[in-house]
Amino acid sequence: MRLATTIAALVFAADQASKWYVVAGLGLDERFFIEVIPGIFSLSMAWNRGINFGLFASDSDATRWVLIVLALAISGWVWLWARRQRDNRLMQASTGFLVGGALGNVTDRLTWGAVADFINVTCCGIVNPYAFNLADAAIFIGAIGLILFGGRKTTRDGPGDMR
């Protein structure tokens, strides 16, 4: 679990540092929009009070706490699941990404009452209305990794064993 812990800590630190730099340091919470690479990459402030893409968003304090508890419960369950497969390094790495990202977004909800989303990528004349953050990207990477590499531990006793 050392690999999962290291990756989770690095993801969490990078996510929180990027949010504080962009939101507080660059003042994105007051400026709302900074074009970095015209037509491709911008910083666009969005306070997400729901889950992905603002789904189930609510200004309710109860919703905020439900999402915090849910994120912590899922992270705990994934962590315990990954501990059973300590020799699966890809699963450990995926767990680190998912848990580090989830804890980053939980910290936002505790600190600001909502998740700070600000990365906006647009391409080829198609305007993307959604913003995300490093934690969201890490959660996505971790979830895909767990789907691809988790729970695939097989044992064989001999050439004819078909467990």
Give a verbal description of the structure.
- The protein starts with a helix and ends in a 14-residue tail after the last helix.
- The longest helix is centred in the first third of the chain and has 24 residues, at 2-25.
- The chain is globular.
- It has one domain.
- It is of the alpha+beta class and 163 residues long.
- The protein has helices at 2-25, 28-31, 61-83, 89-112, 134-149, and strands at residues 33-37, 41-48, 115-121.
Q: Which range does the strand content fall in?
A: 5-15%
Kindly state the percentage of residues in helix. Answer: 55-70%
Unreliable stretches (pLDDT < 50, length at least 5) are 154-163
Radius of gyration, taken over Cα atoms and rounded to an integer in Å: 18 Å
Q: Kindly report how far apart the N and C termini lie.
A: 27 Å
Mean pLDDT level: 84
**Strand element count:** 3
Spatial order of the strands forming the largest sheet: 1-2-3
Shape: globular
- The overall number of domains is 1
**Number of helical runs?**
5
State the order of secondary-structure elements, H for helix, E for strand.
HHEEHHEH
**Estimated structural class:** alpha+beta
Main pleated sheet: 3 strands, antiparallel
